[in-house]
Amino acid sequence: MSDTRRRVKVYTLNEDRQWDDRGTGHVSSTFVERLRGISLLVRAESDGSLLLESKISPNTAYQKQQDTLIVWSEADNYDLALSFQEKAGCDEIWERICQVQGRDPALDITQDPIDESEEERFEEIPETSHLVELPPCEQGRLEEIADLVTSVLSSPIRREKLALALMTEGYIKKLLGLFRVCEEVDNREGLHHLYEIVRGVLFLNKAALFEVMFSDDCIMDVVGCLEYDPALVQPKRHREFLTKTAKFKEVIPITDSELRQKIHQTYRVQYIQDIILPTPSVFEENFLSTLTSFIFFNKVEIVSMLQEDEKFLTEVFAQLTDDATEDSKRRELVNFVKEFCAFSQTLQPQNRDAFFKTLANLGILPALEIVMGMDDLQVRAAATDIFSYLVEFSPSMVREFVMQEPQQTDDDVLLINVVIKQMICDSDPELGGAVQLMGLLRTLIDPENMLASTNKTEKTEFLSFFYKYCMHVLTAPLLANTAHDKNSKDLQEGSTKVNPVCPDNFQTAQLLALILELLTFCVEHHTYHIKTYIMNKDLLRRVLVLMNSKHTFLALCALRFMRRIIGLKDEYYNRYIIKGNLFEPVINALLDNGTRYNLLNSAIIELFEFIKVEDIKSLIAHIVDNFYKALESIEYVQTFKGLKGRYEQEKDRQSQRLNRYRRDARSLDEDEELWFNDDDDDDDGEAVEKRMGDDFSDSYGKYMEAKKGAANGANGANNNGKAAALPPASPAVTPNNSSASSVKTVPLPATPVVKTALVGLVDYPDDEDEEEDDEEEDQSPRKRPRLSS
Fold first, then answer.
1. Which of 17, 45, 348, 546 has its CA 20 to 30 A from that of 527?
2. Do residues 762 and 617 touch, judged by C-beta distance below 8 A?
3. For bias kind Low complexity, which ranges apply (predicted)?
4. DSSP 8-state secondary structure symbol assigned to residue 10
5. Which domains does the chain have, with CATH numbers?
6. Are 604 and 630 in contact (CB under 8 A)?
7. What would the pLDDT profile of 704-748 be if each residue is shown by its tens digit?
8. DSSP letter for each residue of 702-727
9. Contacts for 113-122 with beta carbons within 8 Å, 24 or more apart?
10. In degrees rounded to 5, what are phi and psi of residue 131?
11. pLDDT mean across residues, the chain
């Protein structure tokens, strides 16, 4: 397998008519019992797995292109290609294919697939007529030649025969010589016929013809023929553009003449395909597949040749990072690197990996820091495209570079901060560049693509770095446009009243919407870091200022940010919202929206519906206590009545729970003692009149003894029966310290009956389990009589 002659890359043509790399391996031709014939086998050089197993069918048309390519179609719309490292290996396999099919290896194509009717029709053609007879190449016969070329395009067999005739007689060069004569004498009719002829020859889709037509001495004449489209009143000046307008810029002189020729050829052929030739119709889509392949493999060859030239790339990056380099020169260097990266997309994955690692070693990221800070818009746009290639290739590589940068006193010099600054300062009214950069930032801060190694965790290190050095840069426009009125008395009391958003223009609103989208992503994926940042900066209050914006899409972005926070059902966030009274701007926006049934209305109602359905008790209590009077008039949805209902249910449950402790202690019977036994930690977390300790189960006997003693002491002290209103275990009547040591209690309020129904409405995280136990209590048959008495 070490024979480099048989080393190949396997390609398949996808639906977009682009070649997809399937891997690199070594090809062989051998008899395969299962396929019952000689087959081409390619085994991967990495692990020996089978990349390709293709039987050499007698009826399959194989083409040899550019001396190192073999292309064929196995089924409808399934094209394959083998790209050989060496010409000798390609020749060996080609001879084997021709041997199996009984063809002459000197030809560059074996045959074309034909349908049954065509097969029968051409069986009648004598063997001697294997070539199409071409008319003499004269001005007077151009119309006849054009008719012949256009007539064969519908028949694969006749296309093949015409291609052979054109090759064997050197007919292409004769036609191009005739073009020069017609142009000298301004023979427009002849030139129009030549346009049809050359266009038809291109549609023959034969690589061997392309090699002749796109050679240095022929390609400009081919372009000249294509200028004289009969549908145009005046011919296009494509040659003038290619020779005078389009300038080949060598940022660093290229000494390899073969590489220079390949670059020129690729540019001109790409121009023919993209600019000169009309968009192919549905019936012509496959006519130029070989032309696409020709360009594709040329680009692969160019990238490979440049990458192998170490001196060239070293010089490029040396000048790119040199402070003495002029701006115009640096602009050309950046455009070269951008085009170089674009060409690299044609490489197979392992070669593309090596390509980007080479760029990283040469200093592409430090260079981007310099050029992305330049004032030239074109340079910044090109640098952004290069940065997107790098982030797409390896976000971890970019993150590693950023964290290894020397910590400057000015954080603005960090690469990510340069990217953020460019996003914020995008001058495009539609913020096209900012949207692209925001997507790249999201990729960089996405924990899903962060690797966790044995010695360190990339997620923890990078996020800590990002929130310490970069987050303040990202949020600066948001904080600047939602400035508080520092002198407002209301603000000191926790109000959310702030100055209007300023400036509230469309471009600023778009930018703030992008920043909010990124922050919302952080809330979803960066739990700890973003929570700390929001709490420290009081960020949600500032974001909710944007609910006042005249741009509804921005108000929706602010609402979405709050919705993501509430969706986490994190009690720390809930307490922060309650303490800051942060529902006020949302409810104000709902009321200001009036009866309009729009997206803002639906989004706000969905927020409250979520709180109701998920039964977030602390938020429900806060909303009903503070805002229900303003919301009770909204009856076109049942959301707010539902919130009130949830609130009342919780209120009733708390009252019923409180009543258990207010019952006459003398009425304790066996069932009630069993109830205490079953629900030994039911009252944990309740600020009613006592708090039971974690060691309750170990001191159960002592607790019951103290409980009964407390009841007897209460009866002896107050003979008029009012002691029944006191809880059974009130610390005011605890007989001794021994029982107090085993039962943790809180001081009894001076007026224990006042507002008892409102106590405990705020639900703390450690209450969830006990509330589930309470729901089970309410459904227990033996407890129902106690709850209803």
1. 546
2. yes
3. 712-725
4. E
5. 4-107 (2.30.29.30), 132-308 (no CATH), 569-661 (no CATH)
6. no
7. 454 444 444 444 444 444 333 333 333 333 334 333 333 333 333
8. HHHHHHHHHHHHHHHH-TTSGGGGS-
9. 113/59, 113/60, 113/61, 113/73, 113/156, 114/156, 114/157, 118/155, 118/156, 118/157, 122/157
10. -115, 150
11. 77
